[in-house]
Design goal:
The complex is a heterotrimer of chains A (252), B (314) and C (259).
Chain A (H helix, E strand, L loop, with lengths): L2 E16 L2 E16 L3 E5 L6 H8 L7 E6 L2 E2 L9 E4 L11 H11 L4 H14 L15 H13 L5 E5 L7 H16 L3 E5 L3 H7 L2 E6 L2 E6 L1 H7 L4 H8 L4 H4 L1
Parallel strand pairs in A: 3-8, 3-9, 6-7, 7-8
Antiparallel strand pairs in A: 1-2, 1-4, 4-5, 9-10
Helix pairs in contact in A: 2-3, 3-4
Chain B lengths: L4 H8 L3 H32 L6 H6 L3 H16 L18 H4 L22 H6 L29 H10 L4 H13 L4 H14 L4 H14 L3 H22 L6 H20 L3 H14 L3 H19 L4
Helix pairs in contact in B: 4-7, 7-8, 8-9, 8-10, 9-10, 10-11, 10-12, 11-12, 12-13, 13-14
Chain C lengths: L1 H16 L2 H17 L11 H32 L3 H5 L5 H35 L4 H28 L3 H18 L3 H6 L5 H11 L4 H11 L7 H27 L5
Helix pairs in contact in C: 1-5, 2-3, 3-5, 3-6, 3-7, 3-10, 5-6, 5-11, 6-7, 6-10, 6-11
Classes of the chains: A alpha/beta (252), B mainly alpha (314), C mainly alpha (259).
């Protein structure tokens, strides 16, 4: 199979100062990941585990301290590596002085999509995220769910082969979640590769082909939902808690 | 990672109701303050009849600084922007050129008018001089175009002069320049006279103002009777001032004013064919003039003329 | 180039969809109209004081537009998290910086055109003349000076975290250059070492924005055109500073974490 996303011994350290003393926090420690073409890959971990840091490295937002990361076999430090990806951040805010159509046109220009084709793509993605009726409205008038759908639309404007979604349903109401989930399901059916992080175990169980669980910057488990569940003899949520070493008694 | 700040900011926003309350409170405070200050304002106004101008009242004593600054601005306009700053050698611009040109103010200028900036200090300075006015011109002589038909463009100095005079009615140079250019370049004699009369209310019996007023009566209306009266009054005031100073010698400005007044009176008497009084005025001019020989020559000519006119009758 | 233009286009749209530009233009027009209604001995041809006031207001307004618009570009993108989806596209950080600069500079240019049209109309209403080439020279160098200010503010926005502190520092620097830049060498001459050397170093290091600023006097007092070779040289001089500040901004932004 074709590996679309790959990390090799990825290490990220953050230098901080606490009470005037320089300290180093290891956010990722030797992370090895490989996502194959056409699969929906769930990236799980508790808060602070290193999910967003991994995504930030993949998207070139931060430089790794060690190791390497590749998208379509190209080093992520090169902008061209991001030509065939779509990214939806955890919290999406877009230029409030633009409307949905203008935002999508702007992003299409960055992908150097010819104008005529861009217009077709804009129509298509707006229809997909059910925002056609509000395409001329300024973003500042949108609800949170609508903004999240604009986020999805912009992530799809270049017809990407790989979608990187950072907790795409967080903060949405049940209807909004359902809409976003159905879009991901549709993309999966179209054979696209989706790499997404989530805290919603139900969502992960429904959509993902494979998952990876990280904790404290280290990869703890990788495999299909059924493999991981069966290894721990429980449902995904219990398996997850088991893997990250959560002790329910300690809380009690 | 968690993106809380934007939401927190929204939560911290002051509600419109609070803003309205704040606005109302501010309005009440402002009206209260105004009501409290108004009687004091009237009192100050009544105490100082001369401070009619709102800005002058508002600025207090500092109005004089602003007035000087505006007068300098007018002089800078008179030179179409070619004017020294505090960093340049401004000894050639100590007396405002526009005031000097009225003939009622003595010049205290020395130094280089054309080259107050001196040689370029470095390449940036040299280069920068291509982008600023770089030639000494006077607006009433056509300014940068040197086109004398455009001499009425001197009107451009008037707004600054007006502002300066309103802020400091005791700034005689400003008033003289305003009146002079209104009269000589703008053909606004009545306005020029009005400016002087207004200034005389604040500076009664000022010899320079009276001198200029006399010129209007003489040069524009050929009213020798009133011009003579005004100039003689000016001369009396000047003499009074000189006596009050109790100095052995006339100072430069008084000497200049005395010479101007006596010269004008002499010219007036000559114009009125009163050669006797004219000669006595020229004799007075001769005492203070830097070129007494020239004056003496003129007196001799006048005496000859008088003798010639008197002899056929004999 | 298409990518840079796309980024620039958003910055331009931001300018004309926000209120600042309209407010400043209207305030400038109102102040000029009020001052123009002053009666100066019933002479309706007096104009130079109004031209000077208008040009001063235009300079202040365009500096406000240039600094405030530019200073918030990158910080606002960070704060509103629009930077993340943007940098997740095949767009290099250098392209983003150049695009932002170009957008703000073009936006300032468009604002400048509106302001100078008003200025031209104001002057023509009393002078009955359109010295277009003179206005063009002044506006051109004004625009290049704004380019330096935009590049400086962009660089500042990457160094200082808060846009307000960046704006304040930029305003102070620019105002100091406009008021004192020309005389720093004269001040240096009056000092003793090592202050003299420090003043000289500052004098030769700063972009001399007072050169285009000083052109106001030529326009106000109807001086003849400046030789075009000097205009070109000054434009090149200002372009060099634009390039310098942009290069510095790119260097700072290259390895800066954006999340």
């Amino acid at each position: 199979m074709n590996t679309i996303l790959k990390t090799e011994k990825l290490r990220v350290e953050f230098k901080t100062r606490q009470l005037g003393k320089a300290t180093t926090k290891v956010a990722l420690n030797g992370l090895d990941l490989a996502v194959q073409a056409g699969e929906v890959f769930g990236f799980l971990g508790p808060n602070g585990a290193g999910k967003t840091t991994t995504m930030n490295v993949l998207l070139g937002f931060i430089q790794p301290t060690g190791g390497a990361a590749y998208l379509f076999g190209i080093d992520v430090r090169q902008p061209i590596a991001r030509q065939r990806i779509g990214y939806l951040p955890e919290l999406t805010y877009y230029y409030k002085f633009l409307n949905a159509e203008e935002i999508l046109r702007f992003y299409a220009k960055i992908f150097k999509i010819p104008n005529a084709e861009a217009e077709k793509r804009i129509d298509f993605v707006l229809k997909l995220v059910e925002l056609q009726h509000a395409r001329k409205r300024l973003i500042k008038t949108y609800s949170k769910g609508m903004q999240q759908r604009v986020g999805l639309a912009q992530a799809l404007i270049n017809n990407p082969d790989l979608l990187i979604l950072d907790e795409p349903t967080s903060g949405l109401d049940p209807v909004g979640r359902m809409k976003v989930r159905s879009i991901i399901q549709r993309l999966k059916n179209e054979g696209r590769t989706v790499f997404f992080s989530s805290h919603e175990m139900g969502e992960v169980e429904t959509i993902c082909d494979r998952i990876a669980i990280i904790n404290n910057g280290e990869l703890k488990a990788v495999g299909s939902v059924s493999e991981i569940s069966s290894q721990h003899g429980a449902n995904l949520e219990k398996a997850f808690l088991d893997i990250i070493g959560f002790q329910p008694e300690a809380v009690a | 990672m968690f993106g809380f700040p934007p939401q927190t900011r929204e939560l911290k926003m002051i509600s419109p109701r609070k803003i309205s309350l704040l606005f109302i409170a501010l309005l009440i405070f402002c009206f209260g303050l105004a009501a409290n200050l108004l009687p004091q304002f009237w009192r100050i106004e009544n105490e100082n009849h001369q401070s009619q101008n709102f800005f002058a009242l508002l600025l207090g004593d500092s109005s004089r600084i602003f007035a000087n600054s505006f007068a300098t601005k007018a002089d800078a306009y008179y030179h179409s922007g070619y004017y020294p700053t505090i960093f340049d050698n401004n000894s050639a611009f100590k007396t405002l050129h526009m005031a000097e040109d009225t003939g009622a103010v003595a010049s205290h200028n020395s130094g280089e008018e054309e080259n107050f900036m001196g040689p370029p200090r470095d390449w940036i300075d040299a280069f920068g001089r291509h982008f600023i006015p770089n030639r000494h011109t006077h607006l009433d002589e056509g300014g940068p175009t040197d086109d004398l038909s455009k001499s009425d463009e001197v009107r451009e100095i008037l707004p600054w002069l007006k502002l300066s005079a309103e802020l400091d009615p005791h700034n005689i140079q400003t008033i003289l320049a305003t009146s002079f250019f209104l009269r000589t370049k703008m053909n606004k004699t009545s306005d020029a006279e009005e400016v002087l009369r207004e200034a005389l209310r604040s500076n009664p019996d000022n010899s320079q103002l009276l001198f200029e007023l006399g010129r209007i009566r003489f040069e524009n209306y050929a009213d020798t009777f009133r011009a003579r009266n005004i100039w003689e009054a000016a001369l009396r005031e000047l003499q009074k001032q000189i006596v009050q100073k109790k100095e052995d010698k006339l100072d430069f400005d008084d000497r200049f004013m005395f010479e101007q007044l006596e010269t004008k009176l002499a010219q007036l008497e000559e114009y009125a064919h009163n050669n006797g009084p004219a000669i006595s005025h020229w004799e007075a001019v001769k005492i203070v003039s830097p070129t007494p020989e020239e004056i003496q020559k003129h007196i001799d000519e006048l005496k000859q003329k008088t003798a010639a006119t008197n002899s056929p009758a004999q | 180039m298409k990518i840079i233009c796309a980024v620039a286009g958003v910055a331009v749209k931001e300018l004309y969809r926000r209120k600042e530009f309209y407010v400043l233009l209207i305030v400038t027009i109102l102040i000029c109209l009020v001052m123009g209604s002053v009666n100066v001995f019933n002479d309706d041809k007096v104009i130079r004081y109004l031209k000077e006031l208008a040009l001063l207001l235009i300079w202040i307004s365009t500096l406000i537009i240039a600094i405030t618009t530019t200073a918030r570009q990158i910080p606002a993108e960070k704060e509103q998290r629009t930077l993340l989806p943007l940098l997740a596209k095949p767009l290099s950080r250098n392209q983003l910086i150049v695009g932002k600069f170009l957008g703000c500079w073009v936006a300032c240019g468009l604002a400048l055109i509106c302001f100078y049209i008003f200025f031209g109309a104001l002057a023509a209403s009393r002078e009955h003349a359109w010295p277009l080439l003179n206005y063009f020279q002044a506006a051109l160098l004004h625009w290049f000076a704004l380019g330096v200010v935009v590049a400086l503010a962009l660089f500042g926005s990457l160094v200082f975290a808060a846009p307000s502190s960046n704006s304040t520092i930029c305003f102070v620097i620019v105002a100091t250059i406009l008021c004192l830049g020309r005389y720093l060498d004269a001040v240096a001459l009056a000092q003793s070492e090592p202050i003299r050397s420090i003043f000289y170093a500052i004098y030769f290091a700063i972009p001399h924005l007072e050169i285009p600023f000083g052109m106001r006097n030529l326009i106000v007092h109807n001086w003849p055109l400046v030789e075009w070779k000097f205009i070109a040289l000054d434009a090149i001089y200002l372009l060099a500073y634009i390039a310098l500040f942009l290069a510095a901004a790119c260097l700072v932004f290259r390895r800066k974490p954006v999340n």
